Amino acid sequence: MAGQFPAVLVTGARQAGKTSLLRYLYPNASYLTLDLPSNAEAARTAPDALLEKYPEPVIVDEIQYAPSLLRHLKVRIDQDRSPGRYLLTGSQVFALMAGVSESLAGRCGVLNLPTLSHAELLGAGQSLSERAYIFLGGYPQLHVGTEAELWFPAYVATYLERDVRNVLRVVDLQDFNRFLRACALRTAQVVNYSDLARDTGISPNTARKWLGLLQTSAVIALVEPYFGNRTKRLIKAPKLMFLDTGLAAFLGGFAAPDDLFDSSYVGAFWESHVFGQVLRLCAARGMAASVNYWRTAGGQEVDLVIERSADALVAVECKWKEHPDAGDAASLRGLEAVEKGRVREKLLVCRAPVPYRLSDGTWVVSVAELLKRLPPKGRRDASRDAV
């Protein structure tokens, strides 16, 4: 993208590695961080003088702290459309994207950086089982010697103090802390704002607003339901999915791996893990992930419905088992019956050491095998990613 656009924005959760990635890829670029209050103030009051101090290409870190700077970057870009001039990072994705869309439309490519996938860590030489990955998660700092018992509390405290106070002006941070923990224990569940509000002691409207903040901060995803042939009454609410299972495990109060894997929450965490690895694969390939879930009012549910094309679906059911059977594939057959001819592959993703096929045609596979079965759709025109 830096070879085609004057500016590139890398978004994602705090501490996902956005700055480290850019500084590694562009070791000779100037570096301006708006995380420093003095720089953020200069960006608001004397933006041109500030930018003159940094030769191009320049990495502008945490652009959300001075969104007014985007207008001045637009002026400079319009004077010189050379690619790769400005490399931006930012959190609080949706609020930031609104500013980018308004100021840098057609001038800025956008990429999202999730935390590390299990495959990335294995490829980097980390000896990490899938079970250990689910409990620890993919934040890079946790895999270079920092103890999770120290890192996660500091991360959450910083997130609460900075992002929450800056964006929502929450008066009682304890309320929001309880809300975080309630959400973590609801990962892979359909959102019910009334239940969430009642368990946290807030109003449903506040719960909706706070959940929106978690989404904009790339802490969670709200997975929309899949609607195809409307032959059954379908659930229309989104499903809450934590994007990093390690953070969810910490917020959920699981102090050790056995606490999680011996609990009734293990199935939900497994589903979140599978969803997260699919999302990371799509991000690594530069593809927009088209992942939904399907559920009827009668209780039939398919955890992930992945659209390869308008007429080709991959249906995925997630089971924390080693040897699922045909009974575990009932919902997959239900979706196949409703979406006649569109479900091209049915997969039960579990901990099976080797793939095998059930009598109804469903494949029982591991997460690694699932990712192998999701080939790229083909390289997209980069201009489609321009804001």
Describe this structure in words.
The structure is a single chain. The protein folds into 2 domains: 7-113, P-loop containing nucleotide triphosphate hydrolases (Rossmann fold, 3-Layer(aba) Sandwich), CATH 3.40.50.300; 117-378, no CATH class. It is built from 16 helices and 14 strands. It has helices at 18-25, 37-45, 47-52, 69-79, 93-103, 118-123, 130-136, 148-167, 173-184, 193-200, 204-216, 245-251, 257-261, 266-284, 330-338, 367-372, and strands at 7-11, 30-33, 58-61, 86-90, 108-112, 189-190, 220-223, 239-242, 291-295, 301-309, 312-318, 343-349, 356-357, 363-365. The strands form 3 sheets. A 6-stranded mixed sheet has the order 9-10-11-12-14-13. Helix 9 packs across helix 12 (245-251). Residues 378-387 have low confidence and may be disordered.
Q: Care to give the gist of this entry?
A:
This protein has 387 residues and is of the alpha/beta class.
**What does the main sheet amount to?**
6 strands, mixed
Percentage of residues in DSSP E strands: 15-25%
Helix and strand content put the structural class at alpha/beta
Contiguous helical run count: 16
What is the spatial order of strands in the main beta sheet? 9-10-11-12-14-13
Tally of extended strands? 14
Mean pLDDT: 89
Helix content: 40-55%
Distance between the termini: 12 Å
What integer value in Å does the Rg equal?
22 Å
Q: Spans with pLDDT under 50 lasting ≥5 residues?
A: 378-387
What gross morphology would you assign? globular
How many separate structural domains? 2
Q: List SSEs in N-to-C order.
A: EHEHHEHEHEHHHHEHHEEHHHEEEHEEEH
